[in-house]
């Protein structure tokens, strides 16, 4: 057991479990059961968001596990995220309160700004979660950006932390320049950055910058293309799990390619939040602490880097939501 890698230390000394269950795309009808089963298996970190549209069911799964005595609330790490339509200061607290109500919790451990993208407000009564387009019933549904400074949203996030509704606050899908700017005015530092990260998108400078600034780094889509193939955002041939070097390392350690890729993520100092709806994969994805990769194996996997981002608003916002909105370029 390599205890030090099982959790990541945050700047204030709190620890976040380094493996979490990603909840994006878990169908509503399966979410409660999967969450309860994952907690029984030993998961203690859940990665949720308003936009995933399943927070009520996730909350039911958490409640089942707590009632069954599987764990206590204080043993759990629950992350959620502020959706793009709630960036104006006066919408931030109601957005978290709605999430807390759905999750059946008094606080989240971590609340992230989901994207550095502010969209026109959509009231809860009109649609929840609101998604990307302003009016899906319009003849030509489109995303409608709103010019809200991140500083305004961040100040409201700080209030949530002061009020005890979010133990930690952080950011997602931000790059170094935006983080640097945020650090220039933040009264509460971001505890965590969550970004897409896998062997085809290694981003060593972003990770190094976060480590230098004491910002923990969570890798979403840590297995790469898998979840983007059904969405038409990747091809089956984009799978890093099929890379011969990953497969060779996996057979050397008697582990699956997914376990090798997740272990690479953890060993380079990131948290990983793979989603799965399959019990055997859920079990695999948390079973990462009885082997380790050599320096040469770590380097061989990092060398697969293609600088390829599957989840790129600069691409999908235009294709799906009629609005060209690059954020990384
Ligand atoms: P499934 O849910 O059918 O298991 P994300 O990028 O959102 O974290 O999603 C992870 C993707 O990888 C999903 O498509 C998931 O599919 C798949 N996956 C999860 N765990 C494994 C695993 N151990 N081996 C192979 N594929 C996996």
Structure description:
With 329 residues, the protein is an alpha/beta fold. The protein has helices at residues 28-41, 55-67, 89-103, 150-162, 176-185, 204-213, 244-253, 257-267, 279-286, 295-302, 313-321, and strands at 7-9, 15-17, 21-22, 45-47, 77-82, 108-113, 166-172, 192-196, 216-220, 271-272. The protein has an eight-stranded parallel sheet. Helix 5 (176-185) links the parallel strand 7 and strand 8. The N and C termini lie far apart (41 Å). The mean pLDDT is 97. Adenosine-2'-5'-diphosphate binds next to helix 9.
List keywords for this structure.
329 residues; alpha/beta; TIM Barrel; eight-stranded parallel β-sheet; two-stranded antiparallel ribbon; 13% strand; globular; binds adenosine-2'-5'-diphosphate
Write the SSE topology.
Layout: E1 7-9, E2 15-17, E3 21-22, H1 28-41, E4 45-47, H2 55-67, E5 77-82, H3 89-103, E6 108-113, H4 150-162, E7 166-172, H5 176-185, E8 192-196, H6 204-213, E9 216-220, H7 244-253, H8 257-267, E10 271-272, H9 279-286, H10 295-302, H11 313-321
Parallel strand pairs: 3-4, 4-5, 5-6, 6-7, 7-8, 8-9, 9-10
Antiparallel strand pairs: 1-2
The structure holds adenosine-2'-5'-diphosphate (A2P).
């Amino acid at each position: 057991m390599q205890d030090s890698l099982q959790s990541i230390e945050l700047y204030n000394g709190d620890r976040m479990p380094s493996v979490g269950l990603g909840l994006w795309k878990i169908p509503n009808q399966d979410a409660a059961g999967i969450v309860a089963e994952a907690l029984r298996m030993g998961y203690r970190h859940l990665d949720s968001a308003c936009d995933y549209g399943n927070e009520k069911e996730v909350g039911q799964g958490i409640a089942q596990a707590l009632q069954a005595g599987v764990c206590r609330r204080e043993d759990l790490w629950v992350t959620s995220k502020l959706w793009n339509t709630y960036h104006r200061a006066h919408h931030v607290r109601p957005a978290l309160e709605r999430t807390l109500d759905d999750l059946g919790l008094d606080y989240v451990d971590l609340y992230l700004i989901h994207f550095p993208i502010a969209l026109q407000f959509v009231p809860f009564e009109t649609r929840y979660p609101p998604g990307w387009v302003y009016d899906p019933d319009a003849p030509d549904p489109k995303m409608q950006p709103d010019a809200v400074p991140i500083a305004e949203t961040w100040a409201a996030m700080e209030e949530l932390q002061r009020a005890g509704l979010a133990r930690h606050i952080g950011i997602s899908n931000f790059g170094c320049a935006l983080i640097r700017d945020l650090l220039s005015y933040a009264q509460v530092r971001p505890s965590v950055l969550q970004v897409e990260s896998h062997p085809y998108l290694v981003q060593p400078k972003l990770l190094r910058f976060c480590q230098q600034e004491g910002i923990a780094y969570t890798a979403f889509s840590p297995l790469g293309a898998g979840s983007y193939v059904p969405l038409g955002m990747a091809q089956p041939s984009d799978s890093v799990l099929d890379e011969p070097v990953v497969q060779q390392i996996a057979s050397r350690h008697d582990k699956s390619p997914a376990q090798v890729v997740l272990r690479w993520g953890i060993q380079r100092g990131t948290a990983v939040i793979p989603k799965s709806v399959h019990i055997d994969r859920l079990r695999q994805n948390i079973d990462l602490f009885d082997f380790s990769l050599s320096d040469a194996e770590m380097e061989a996997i990092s060398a697969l880097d293609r600088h390829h981002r599957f989840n790129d608003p600069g691409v999908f916002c235009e294709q799906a939501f009629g609005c060209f909105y690059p954020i990384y370029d």
